[in-house]
Amino acid sequence: MIRFPIDHHLHGPGAGISLLALACLLFHGASCAQTRAVPADAIPSFEKLDSIEARVQGCVTCHGQKGQGTADGYFPRIAAKPAGYLYNQLTAFRDGTRSYPPMNYLVAYLPDPYLKEIAEYFAAQRPPFSAVGGPAPDPALTQRGQVLATVGDPAKGIPACIACHGANLSGMEPGIPGLAGLRPAYIVGQLTRWRVGERRATEPDCMKRIATRLTDDDISSVAAWLSQQSPSSGASPEPSNLVRMPLACGSQR
């Protein structure tokens, strides 16, 4: 595990007495401990402070303790996505090639090993999926979305989503994310950002090529259908399969 200097600005009711007791023991020895008895559990564990669970606290505030995302889908599920994909997104936020100010600020000064460790942590999580709320979408909308997701549109050069994101929509190692559990508004937002160039990936940027071929109606349709799919609990990304992929994708190198 990569270790960094520990910030000793502890918070909570026991923080002051914990540091006072520790300083007392360091400078005055056992006699101090005898005159000022401190419960053992009040002394901070520096191993806990310098743990991956401590480091991801900035992430879980929005994405959930295990990366399950929020029920309304505003903050997406990041659990069980390939570590390579998560790492690519973290470096994109850090380097400014993907823009979302809270994320850009959060990871601005984090080194690669630190970001890799965070990515591996959330890739290993398997929290349950939350139920999809809201009214059911228009059947005509989801029908077109199902065709795009499972068959594609050869006439427009649009491959099926499942060709890369997996039959169970759980993603593919090392760099293609799962789509299960995402809300329609999030999917629409990301596909639109790919189409207008606000999101980019390593060239050849296969998502850019696909998104530019989608109409607004196509995007709404595929988002509606994907959001209605029941994800497989505990599913993991599929192994890399470059032969099956319809387009060359830089994120799979």
Automatic annotation (TrEMBL):
Record PTM: Binds 2 heme c groups covalently per subunit.
What sequence ranges are listed for the domain Cytochrome c?
40-126, 140-230
* Compositional bias segments (type: Polar residues): 226-239
At the top level, the lineage of the source is Bacteria
Q: Where is this region: Disordered?
A: 226-253
Gene3D superfamilies from the UniProt entry:
Cytochrome c-like domain (1.10.760.10)
Q: Which UniProt keywords apply?
A: Heme, Iron, Metal-binding
Q: Which residues bind heme c 2?
A: C161, C164, H165, M207
Note the coiled coil stretches, chain numbering: none
**What PROSITE patterns does the record point to?**
CYTC (PS51007), PROKAR_LIPOPROTEIN (PS51257)
Q: Which residues bind heme c 1?
A: C59, C62, H63, M103
Keyword DNA-binding appears in the UniProt entry? no
**Which GO CC terms are listed, alphabetically?**
periplasmic space
Entry-linked InterPro entries: Cyt_c-like_dom, Cyt_c-like_dom_sf, Cytochrome_c4-like, Cytochrome_c_Oxidase_Subunit
Q: Which Pfam families match?
A: Cytochrom_C (PF00034)
What molecular function terms (GO) are annotated for this protein?
electron transfer activity; heme binding; iron ion binding
Annotated PANTHER family: BLL4483 PROTEIN, CBB3-TYPE CYTOCHROME C OXIDASE SUBUNIT FIXP
Listed name of the protein: Cytochrome C
Which species is the source of this protein?
Massilia eurypsychrophila
